[in-house]
Amino acid sequence: MANLLGGIATSHIPAIGVAMDKGLEETPYWKDFFDAYPPVRDWLYTQEPDIAIIFYNDHGLEFFHDRKPTFAIGASELYENADEGWGIAEIPPVTGETELSWHIVNHLIEHDFDITVCQEMKVDHGLTVPLTLMWPGHKYGHIKVIPVAINCERHPMPKPSRCYAFGKAIGDAVRSFSGDQKVVVMGTGGLSHQLDGQRAGYINKPFDLYCMDKIVNEPELLTQFTNYELVEKAGAQGVELNMWLAMRGALENEGSLKELHRSYHLPISNTGAGLQLLATNNAR
Amino acid sequence: MASQGSIPGTIMLDGPMATKGYPLNKMCYSFNNASARDEFRTDEEAYYEKFKLTEEQKQAMRQRDVIGMLEAGGSIYYLAKFAGILGLNVQDVGGLQTGMTTDEFKAFLVKQGEV
Amino acid sequence: MAKIIGGVTTSHIPAIANAMANGLEETPYWKPFFDGYPPVRDWLNEQKPDVIILFYNDHGLEFFIDKKPTFAMGVADEYYNSDEGWGIPTIPPVTGESELSWHIANSLVEDGFDMTICQEMKVDHGLTVPLNLMWPGHNYGHVKVIPVCINCEQHPMPQPKRTLALGQAIGRAVESFDDDLKVVVFGTGGMSHQLDGERAGFINRAFDIECLDKLVSDPESLTKYSNYDLVELGGAQAVELNMLIAMRGALLGEVTELHRNYHAPISNTGSGLMLLENK
Ligand SMILES: [Fe+2]
Ligand SMILES: [Fe+2]
After folding, report:
1. The Extradiol ring-cleavage dioxygenase class III enzyme subunit B domain covers which part of the protein (chain C) (predicted)?
2. Residue A68: what pLDDT?
3. What are the extents of the domains in chain A?
4. How many CB atoms lie within 10 A of CB C161?
5. pLDDT surpasses 60 at B3
6. Distance of CA A169 to the CA centre of its chain
7. Which of A235, B4, B40, C146 is the most buried (most CB within 10 A)?
């Protein structure tokens, strides 16, 4: 069976990608943020995962309102990035894989998740920024990525409890796969932020810290929120917490988890940026 | 669901808003393509027509009125692509919506870390 | 309060559209098929439903396998048909209805159905043939249509138990809508047929009739079938029965069969027309 080594939660805002392109990591604005990443990179380097399942949201590159999936999952050998319209540099293609992807797809349909299955899809900064953060210099070609997109842009959105159950089903699918691959899951986005309206700029640090605290051992305290409550507490885009919950759901049946890293920094662009690493007992 | 109560300064992009905003969002979605951005720059009014924007949407676009665009059903994710054409980042757009300068808006963000 | 007053099962194969376009309804091949329809048309004209919720599958007009939804639904005020590539005439736009559509979408996502929600979508013969069968001469502009599309083209597909649950959730959503609307649900496609492989041409009349019976009296019993069973018993495209099952799920009241006409073969299929009243 394939093994889940752990989960990583990270911000995915485009400003990070721009800062890395321009080599701004050591400037006063960015230093504290980037200084948090080496321990997580080191862990990945030691663990040598084969596959990364990445929960993200598409911000209008691949999906438009004409046909907007609640949950979409890729099953392709390759994923391309492309022009997102406002100037973030395009990055090299992302390596995919199809065997575990299709296995997960079958498991999800069998367990009543009504996904959109993508044999070709463009992936946006929601997925590419975390990859570049983990493997700077776009050195992520060796890792096979399974992109999983969750609707966080237009209501109705899947509920936190549904996203958690979705992640859990994906974790179960990984464990029931006959290969011996090593897999990490990533929950990207968040934490509190609001880009639109007179409330733009809203950040809720105490709530973000609460989420990072509870997600480790008491995720049920977070999955009881409605999306409306998340918007209220964490801003219009605070619903991106749903990707963190899907990541955590995937680890639900792994037994005890070790929190190996937690850091929080604000503001990064308009957000509270969290980084967290939860390892399972499969990790070395 | 989006219908419970209302959060000040927040427009929920729910179904009815997304229906209203469809032409505006579709136009902004097209800005993923460089050629579309050029076409827009060349003749904005013709580009509004091409996507059948409502009068309310055209007016908000002409005045670069971000709150007006949101009230006309605009989604921030697509409006961000329009902001890119204007060379504005999300702090600039934050300032425009809150009546602050970009620097004031940045200071406001920093302040929320001091709790 | 909106109310689902009934349900209809009908074939949606493209050959029907060609037969109607060429005025072949009275020819020996087609007559037994088309003769089934007037009672259903009469009922619809009497009842005057405001909205039709139409379960169908997209055969590659709007959706390709690059991004294939399990369940997709429209929330637009208008839908267009267009060239499907092999010569079925394009038909005039279909009227949509965004308010009830969004209400259903909200309710479904709240209930844990992961819909792909479409503010713009092209609708293919799976949807247009049934409309034209019910209102010949493309006289369907007055009725508002909510398209609900179920994946029947690429495995893995949703199983009968899931599509029945989808129909039931839609039934509950409609009944919780405030406006006084009369709604009829269409389940289209099927019944037994297989287009591909050495087994092409397979039709199972006894199985089709049993399914129609069960749809009336005991739809839950159909959820014992997996899609694999449906393919085995009814042929590769018999998974289209899922649309009929979803339709039946939406009828939450007391169901009475008002009309039935089973005829095989039409093109390569067993065609099951049935009208159910929901009280
Ligand atoms: Fe995001
Ligand atoms: Fe069909």
Report:
1. 8-269
2. 98
3. 3-279
4. 17
5. no
6. 16
7. A235
Contact state of B81 with A85 under an 8 Å Cβ cutoff: yes
Is C102's CB within 8 Å of B14's CB? yes
Q: Is C27's pLDDT higher than 80?
A: yes
H, E, C per residue of C202-232? CCCHHHHHHHHHHHHHCHHHHHHCCHHHHHH
pLDDT in tens, B97-113: 999 999 999 999 999 99
Residues C225 and C207 sit within 8 Å (Cβ to Cβ): no
Catalytic residue chosen out of the listed positions A59, A107, A125, A261: A125
User: Is residue A142 among the annotated active site residues?
Assistant: no
Domains of chain B plus CATH, in order, are 15-87 (1.10.700.10)
The 10 Å CB-count burial string (b at 16+, else e) for C232-269 is: ebbbbbbbbbbbbbbbbbbbeeebeeebbbebbebebb
Instruction: Write the burial class of residue B83 (CB in 10 Å: 0-12 exposed, 13-18 middle, 19+ buried).
Output: buried
Tens of pLDDT, residue by residue over B52-76, are 999 999 999 999 999 999 999 999 9
Q: What is the pLDDT of residues C154-197, one digit of tens each?
A: 999 999 999 999 999 999 999 999 999 999 999 999 899 999 99
Ligand nearest the Cα of residue A271 is 1
User: Per-residue confidence at A192, pLDDT binned at 50, 70, 90?
Assistant: very high
CA A47-A81-B64 angle, 5° bins? 125
Residue ranges of domains in chain C, CATH in brackets: 3-268 (3.40.830.10)
Residues of chain B positioned with their CB less than 8 A from the CB of A83: 32-34
CB atoms inside a 10 Å sphere around CB A188: 25
CA distance C90 to C83: 6
- Whole-number percent of chain C with pLDDT over 70: 100
Contact yes or no for B2 and A228 at CB 8 A: yes
What are A69's two structure tokens?
A: 């999936």
User: Which of B88, B90, B92, B97 should be substituted to probe chain A, the one whose Cβ sees the most A Cβ atoms within 10 Å?
Assistant: B90
From A237's Cα to the closest Cα of chain B, the distance in A is 10
Taking CB atoms and an 8 Å cut-off, how many pairs form between chains A and B?
Answer: 138
Domain spanning A3-279: CATH 2.60.40.10: no
Q: What is the mean pLDDT of residues A240-244?
A: 98
The string of pLDDT tens digits covering residues A138-189 is: 999 999 999 999 999 999 999 999 999 999 999 999 999 998 999 999 999 9
Helix (H) / strand (E) containing B67: helix B66-71
Cis peptide before C275 (omega within 30 of 0): no
